[in-house]
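Incident review: delayed structure delivery

Summary: a single-chain prediction request sat in the queue longer than the usual turnaround. Root cause was a stuck worker, restarted by the on-call engineer. No data loss occurred. The affected request and its eventual output are reproduced below so the record is complete for anyone auditing the incident later.

Affected input:
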Amino acid sequence: MLASVVSATLLGVEGQVVTVEVHVSPGLPAYHVVGLPDTAVRESRERVRAALLSSELPWPQQRITVNLAPGGVRKTGAGFELAVALGLLLGEGQLPAGVLDGVGVVGELGLDGSVRAVPGTLAFVDALRRAGITTVIVPEVGASEAMLAADLHVRVARTLGELRACLKGEAPWPDPPPPLAPVDLADDEADPLDLADVRGLTWARRALEVAAGGHHHLLLSGPPGAGKTMLARRLATIMPRLRDDEAFETTRIHSVAGCAPAGLMRAVPVRAPHHTASVAALVGGGAARARPGEVTMAHRGILFLDELGEFPPSALDALRQPLEERVVRISRQQGTLTFPADFLLVACTNPCPCGLGPPGCSCTEFQRARYRRRLSAPLLDRFDLRLAVRPPEANDQAGETSESVRGRVINAVARQAARLAGTPWRHNGHIPAGALERLIPLSGDAAAAWRAQSELRVMTGRGAARVRRVARTIADLDDVADVLEAHIMWAALLREDVP
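Output delivered after worker restart:
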């Protein structure tokens, strides 16, 4: 007997529909899985067998062949086990023919017959939905996550025996859990952050606002205690909430990584890896299965690198391509995977190993030069905003609240969305050099100031283009239609030579 059940696997952070074909034929008892399975898939035999016997269902004493189609795609994870078990029941006549037509199945089996959730449930059901599947059967734990995908009928599977009874019409389907409410990570802070906590640092606060308004990468350099980390940690409080498509995409990525929140992510994700992070941890990779790195986990959000000068130079240089292209390509012998990496990079660093910088620095010139070499010139050139932060004075007053600044940022983002409608770009920081003349025109004094600043500061072509983009964002924050000379000067001043 031959039976087939539709399931899914992961390719990077995307789901791939897989047809699980189960063939039971006369012969000596055997169990074979073909179709490029990984170790977890090959080990499914014992779990499926124990689950069937624990559920008082027969295990065929015949030759069993499981084919995972398409055969050229590597299959990973234990999410096929429920599909294999149902395929065996179909082949043995334990389920009515056609009962699983148009139904997708995802789930891992326990030895007692329980159905367990697998990482990436949202990616699986989204792939099944795009393939035309209208009903999915998922574990009870992952049902709420699956319900985030629109236009899908989600059915809950708690145990294999109960699922068989439901499919045969002998028992009612369990009620699905209630839909999850959107999650605003900012509301989960035990100690809410606010820009009003920061005293002084007027220029740094302005740079933070510009970074949020146009998605411009920001580097803050200064001595310990200057307020760099305190300021950077408050960037998320002035960022707009994610749009519907961005929230779904971000939630799906976190589902693949096994850390999906309890609901649709509305606040921008914030990732802050330690400076001992490896190249694979930052940009993704792995031996058995390529996994998303921190740059992908920060997609549509913020990647905060504190103590930038302490990161391995190889890891920092690996960020250069994602900063430009906003994707990461992981190449392996089996093929190339593309991970999204559209993140806002915010970094803090000390000016030298002792951290004090001139005039109180105790480092030798050799030590300072070696420390500066850890940050390559091509990496520094990719920061739109570079600012030396000086410690605030004792009598400095608190500035605006995050809510007030966030209002201007939201308005600036709305202006960009209207101006960039019909283009593949969402923010001023995304506009490529070839489209600057069309999308960010300069005339008169503004054009002359831009050329003068580019020559005076000996900027590269990339640096001059970044000044132009930043000037456009400053104009958006000021609610001005055209880029003025003052905006060019502000943008140039926010691009200092650091560290």
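Verification: The chain is about 35% helix and 15% strand.
Action items: add queue-age alerting; document worker restart procedure.
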